[in-house]
Amino acid sequence: MASASLQFFAFILALFGVFGDIAATLLPNWKVNADVGSNIITAITQMQGLWMDCTWYSTGMFSCTLKYSILSLPVYIQAARTTMVLSCILSAFGICITTVGMKCTRLGGDTDSKNNASFAGGICFILAGIFGLVPTCWYTREIITNFLDQTIPESSKHEPGGAVYTGFISAGFLLIAGVIFCSSCFKRQQGAWIYPPKQHHFPSTEQESNAGYSLKDYV
């Protein structure tokens, strides 16, 4: 019962991770213009994402421009696009697989099949968390490097936006959910290895017959 509750908790974390992963992939605020120097008071807020660049004016108007050219983008943005999409796909597969393998559901067949499905779903969550964590770390590193570069003007410096923090949190949720699903199945298998089923040995009928009759009395 405790293992089923733990799996359900991990499934809820995975759901939050999937929704956050999709939101982080689509949001345009991976980096925003930094309010430093002469940019402390500005009438516009510029945001850049993986798929579009947006500008928010103080009058309330909002305009976005899609990034159609892939080859003109920096390498870290191209890598972030690929890995974030892979993270969304793997996390969606993990949700489908763990739904079958969870102990609180009636799908998946016998216990061994459900354990294998839960373990496979946990692996999908761990891979999705890794694929979501790598681009956010790389993207944040590029932002910090450009921010500390003295040759870049203050008007071109940016700070990490809300999508980066959403990506970090979602990757953490997916990693935790994957570890819980994998460890719950591993504990059950480990218990079977430590305490193997007892085997009962029964003497053969021939030994019983020999034990019942003594051959010394016969010539």
From TrEMBL:
Intracellular or extracellular location(s): Cell junction, Tight junction; Cell membrane
One of its Pfam families is PMP22_Claudin
Signal peptide region: 1-24
Name the Gene3D superfamilies for this protein: 1.20.140.150
Report the source organism: Thryothorus ludovicianus (Carolina wren)
Name under which the protein is recorded: Claudin
Q: Which family does it belong to?
A: Belongs to the claudin family.
Describe its function.
Claudins function as major constituents of the tight junction complexes that regulate the permeability of epithelia.
Task: Provide GO CC annotations from the record.
Answer: bicellular tight junction; plasma membrane
Superkingdom of origin = Eukaryota
Q: Which PROSITE patterns match?
A: CLAUDIN (PS01346)
